[in-house]
Design brief:
254 residues; alpha/beta; Rossmann fold; 2 domains; six-stranded mixed β-sheet; four-stranded antiparallel β-sheet; globular
C-alpha cells in the first residue's frame, strides 16, 4: 500500500529523518514507535504533504506522492489525525466530521449555486455517512454541540470520526489515544481492530506500548530520525536496540 525509500527531511542543516525505508502492507495495522523527537510526526507530515521530504521517495499504490500537495494526496485516499487536535472549535460536531468529506462533495461552483437535485442528494448521502461515523464512535448525542465545549476524549473521537468518514484507503493516526483514560483507550483500540478487520490499512503513531503490542501486525521503530528495527510486535519487543532506545534498559534486564 505504501512504500518509503530512503526518506530524508532536513530543517536547515539539522536532519530530522535520515534514510527511512519501510513498507506498509495492505490490510494491516503498522505501528510507528520511538522516543520523543524520533521523527514520527515529521514522517507522517511528509507522507501527507504537510511537509516535503528533502530526498527519497514515497510511493502510495504505485504512485509517487513525495512532492504532491496535501489536497491531492487526500484525494488519492489518504486520511489522517493530528498529534495536536485540529478541530474547528465553533463548528458543530457534525460539521467538523463533514469537513472530512470535502473531497467527496464535488468541484462544480455552478452546481453549488444552482442547487441541482443531484447535489442535494449527494449532500444528504454525505450527512448520513457522517452520522454513521459519529454513531460508530459513540457521539450521536452530541452532533449539534460546538466542538469547543467537548471533553478532551470526545474531541479525540470527533477527529477519529472525521478521519474515517471518507473511507480512506490508508489511515494515518498520530497518537490517537494520547491523553485518554484506560477505558477510553480500550474503546479506541477496539475501533482500530474493527477498522483493520474491515480491510482498512492503518499506520499508527503511538506511545501506549500495551495498545501497540496488542493490535499491531507490524512495528517500525524510529530513533533519532533513523529506522532501527522493523518486525512483528514480539520481534521488536525482544530487539536489544529497541529496548535500549525506547523501552528502557530496565525492561531489557527484566
Amino acid at each position: 500500500m505504501l512504500q518509503l525509500n530512503s526518506v530524508c527531511k532536513n530543517f536547515g542543516g539539522l536532519p530530522a529523518l535520515s534514510d527511512v525505508s519501510f513498507n506498509v502492507p495492505k490490510g494491516q495495522l503498522t505501528a510507528l514507535i520511538g522516543p520523543n523527537g524520533a521523527g514520527k510526526s515529521t514522517l507522517i507530515n511528509c507522507i501527507t504533504g504537510v511537509l516535503t521530504a528533502s530526498s527519497g521517495s514515497i510511493i502510495f499504490q504505485d504512485k509517487e506522492i513525495a512532492e504532491l500537495p496535501a489536497y491531492e494526496i487526500s484525494r488519492l485516499g489518504i486520511s489522517r489525525t493530528f498529534q495536536n487536535l485540529r478541530l474547528f472549535p465553533r463548528l458543530s460536531v457534525l460539521d467538523n466530521v463533514l469537513t472530512g468529506l470535502t473531497c467527496k462533495g464535488g468541484r462544480s461552483m455552478l452546481m453549488a449555486m444552482l442547487r441541482l437535485p443531484y447535489l442535494r442528494h449527494r449532500e444528504r448521502q454525505l450527512k448520513l455517512r457522517s452520522l454513521e461515523a459519529l454513531d460508530r464512535f459513540g457521539l450521536s448525542d452530541k452532533i449539534n454541540w460546538p466542538a469547543e465545549v467537548l471533553a478532551y476524549g470526545d474531541k479525540k473521537r470527533v477527529e477519529l470520526a472525521r478521519a474515517t468518514v471518507g473511507r480512506p484507503d490508508l489511515l494515518l493516526l498520530d497518537e490517537p489515544v494520547a491523553g485518554l483514560n484506560g477505558e477510553e483507550t480500550a474503546a479506541v483500540g477496539e475501533q482500530l481492530k474493527l477498522l483493520r478487520r474491515a480491510g482498512h490499512t492503518l499506520l499508527l503513531v503511538e506511545h501506549d506500548m500495551d495498545l501497540v503490542m496488542e493490535i499491531a501486525d507490524q512495528v517500525v521503530v524510529l530513533d533519532s530520525g533513523r529506522c532501527i528495527a522493523t518486525g512483528t510486535p514480539d520481534e521488536v519487543r525482544r530487539n536489544p536496540l529497541v529496548l535500549e532506545a525506547y523501552l528502557g534498559r530496565v525492561e531489557a534486564t527484566a
